[in-house]
Amino acid sequence: MDQEEGLKALDNIVTQFNTYEDFLDSQITTVDLYYLEDETLARQLVELGYRGTGERVKREDFEARKAAIEISRLAERAQQKFSSLLQL
Question: What is the per-residue pLDDT for 88?
């Protein structure tokens, strides 16, 4: 997977989940919880890449991309407001 595809995959993950913990939880199965009996341990195993049903994403990457998307969204909104003011 090249860098652009990786960023698109990360963007999809980041926009799909509100928090990193929500993302981790999505990777945990009921069987995992049955055998581990500890949600925190299950999250740690997913975070380390030992368990999970999908893409491995580091907390720092998730939070950085989440912030970048939010900044982009706010900048776009500000640009739209500025453009509408210029038209007046």
Answer: 65
Neighbour-count burial of 42, counting CB atoms closer than 10 A to its CB (0-12 exposed, 13-18 middle, 19+ buried)? buried
Q: In the chain, which ranges are E strands?
A: none
Q: What is the pLDDT of residues 22-34, one digit of tens each?
A: 999 999 999 999 9
CA gap 53, 26 in Å, rounded: 8
Q: End-to-end alpha-carbon separation of the chain, Å?
A: 47
Angle value at C-alpha 25, between 68 and 19, nearest 5 degrees: 25
49 dihedral zone (left: phi>0; alpha: psi -120 to 50; beta): left
What are the boundaries of each domain within the chain?
A: 3-86
